[in-house]
Design a protein that fits this description.
The protein has 225 residues and is an alpha+beta fold. It has seven helices and four strands. Helix 1 crosses helix 3. It holds the Pfam family Arc1p_N_like.
Length: 225
């Protein structure tokens, strides 16, 4: 679907169409910022925008504003005229008619020192808020095969030894005994590990330190979660 404002983008009708268009999209075209975003960003009068009435436009403006003018020049795509998006010249000019250092309409005229200062403060607050978001913790689900020496090994004691291994970022899960041959059974046990904290090789070595019970440790399954 292509955006078609059908008039002045800063009119109630134009902003409503843009808001509806952005309600299910992050960008004007595709799944990453492009020159289409720059063209429309330069045309929308963000300083007078009613954020409560057009929340999706406000979100999009804030996001594009978080990039510097130099970064926006590096966006992909070819910069088109506003008419490509059904925007007339009523109160809006295409991005090509604006001076390159007219950075962010959302925060006013760059020639105005107070507006410039407000813009910098808002950008700083935006980046600080963004940096405080908790990082996603990478985890993996691992199934280990722990094999005993023979059929006389106390498998209950073997499992007790395995579960006694404690590491930051390690959580033991379900287990079961799986028949091998000649009456020998192996312990198959599930664990969840934080990738940055627990190395599977290190974990296997710690388990194999119980050499009276453990003959070997193998990874039966490994899955990122």
């Amino acid at each position: 679907m292509t955006l078609n404002v059908g008039g002045d983008i800063n009119s109630a009708s134009g902003l409503s169409k843009l808001n509806e268009y952005l309600s299910s999209r992050s960008y004007i075209e595709g799944y990453s910022p492009s020159q289409a975003d720059v063209t429309l960003f330069d045309a929308v009068d963000g300083q007078k925008l009613d954020a409560a009435k057009y929340p999706h436009v406000k979100r999009w403006l804030n996001h594009i504003a978080s990039y510097s003018s130099e970064e926006r020049k590096q966006f992909t795509g070819v910069k088109k005229d506003l008419t490509a998006y059904g925007v007339t010249a009523n109160g809006a000019t295409s991005g090509g008619d604006k001076e390159e250092d007219d950075d962010i309409d959302l925060f006013g005229d760059d020639d105005d020192e107070e507006a410039d200062k407000a813009r910098e403060e808002r950008l700083k607050a935006y980046h600080e808020k963004k940096s405080k978001k908790p990082a996603l913790i990478a985890k993996s689900s691992v199934v280990l095969d722990v094999k005993p020496w023979d059929d006389e090994t106390d498998m209950s004691k073997l499992e007790e030894c395995v579960r006694s291994v404690q590491m930051d970022g390690l959580l033991w899960g379900a287990s079961k005994l799986v028949p091998l041959a000649y009456g020998i059974k192996k312990l198959q046990i599930v664990c969840v590990v934080e990738d940055d904290k627990v190395g599977i090789d290190d974990l296997s070595e710690k388990i194999q330190e119980f050499e009276d019970y453990v003959q070997s440790v193998d990874v039966a399954a490994f899955q990122k979660i």
